[in-house]
Amino acid sequence: MVKVITYGTFDLFHEGHYRLLKRAKALGDYLIVGVTTESFDKARGKLNVIDSLMTRIENVKRTGFADEIIIEESVGQKFSDIKKYHIDIFTIGSDWEGQFDYLKDHCKVVYLERTKNISSTMLRAKKRKIQRIGVIGTGRIAGRFMSEARSVSGVEVQSVYNPHPVSALKFAEQWDLDAYRDIEDFYHNVDAVYIASPHETHYEYIKAALEHGKNVICEKPMVLKKSEAEEVYKYAKEHDLILYEGIKTAYCPGFHKLLGVAFSGRIGAVRNIEACFTKLENPQNRELTDLAYGGSFLELGSYVLLPVMKFFGTEYESVRFETINGDNGLDIFTKTSFRYPNGIATVTVGLGVKAEGRLLISGTQGYIVVGAPWWKTSYFEVHYEDPNRVEKYTEPFLDFGLRYEISDFLSKLNANGEEDFKLTREESIAMAGIMEKFMEEERKIDGTNASVGTQRS
Length: 457
Ligand code: CTP
Prior knowledge:
35% of the residues lie in helices and 26% in strands. It is of the alpha/beta class. It folds into three domains: 3-112, HUPs (Rossmann fold); 131-247, 3-Layer(aba) Sandwich (Rossmann fold), CATH 3.40.50.720; 253-396, Dihydrodipicolinate Reductase, domain 2. The chain has an eight-stranded mixed β-sheet with strand order 13-14-15-12-16-17-18-19, covered by helices on one side. α10 (226-238) runs antiparallel to α16 and α14 crosses α16 (425-443). It starts with a strand and ends in a 7-residue tail after the last strand. Residues 445-457 have low confidence and may be disordered. Bound molecules: cytidine-5'-triphosphate (CTP). Cytidine-5'-triphosphate binds at residues 8-11, 16-17, 20, 46, 92-93, 95, 114-115, 118-121.
């Protein structure tokens, strides 16, 4: 008996899939079809699969070609399946030509010609309107956004705006976009905007984009005043628009797994949080020279505040900042302490002092620890009183990780059943409030006049 195996996602089952399975079956006597799980698809960057695993399995079953259906959950499984099921022929579409030649030592590998002009990607795009995104700002993070957006099907970054035409043109050329000189034209040609301009310009751009009826993802810190955050979220809600603060950790699968583990009660009640993020920055860079809007807390604070908001909420009893300032008065290191009715948190950021970038969540039964870079959570451990008992969790974090927030934003735009914000309005507003408090207490800057803050240690 000749045993054949093939694998696929088989999302929105189409003629290409049917023809592939038919030919795969014809190669032998017994056909096994591996259907990928949702988490495996996510792990390999397929973020927008529409059909559930059950539906996809059902559709494969309905063709009548599969003698057995298995699920594909991990990298490396193909090799072990071939051994386990005594496979004679591995087959897959010609879009994978050459990529499975490594299996040739173990079975025959056949690439079947792909059916032209049909794919799940095409059907997904038809089902959902492609969202045209315009980028405001052309810095490093905007470049990252570009490369990440390309891995999310259903969005297309089409244009860029920067008040400095030279920067806009350069960015447009690099990423093959349209650069607009007139911001009205820019808004006219997009469905959503991604704002990656300097912090202090976010508020005006968000307002303008919303007023033009556009959905918005804005880089963190979204705004630096609580009232401004309240105002823009209120406007968005009233006009049925989506406004996302782009703190990538909030949307990253590993961080969600961690929240899930902690909320399931494994470590008991959470009582203490410590989070640290430091990144030594060149003293000449904007982050350490912009006297009004630079400094460690404004730059990195959003990341460390996130776990505090997630575990303890937005209603803290007190918050206290301790800063070490550089010669120009900007904080090169800031420690922030919170007291809550049921717990305490200490979060640390630094652009000029290095420390261990770790996240620690302590509970009444145990603790969760994530090493640097915990803000791109891909691995964490759960520890208990018994030091021999350690649980280890992993979850992929791909490239720059902005694809998760873009994909989430897209699901929200398509109202595709995705749960509410991974970062709630309330959390985002509270963070703006904390930034504001920091500015009032520590920055000692009145408008344009930058006085030097007190040095503390
Ligand atoms: N396939 C095919 N002809 C097509 C589309 C897919 O022969 N027009 C084959 C693939 O080569 C693969 C199998 O069907 O062997 C399952 O492919 P899958 O990745 O699930 O389908 P795609 O339509 O290629 O999905 P996507 O657009 O998400 O990549």
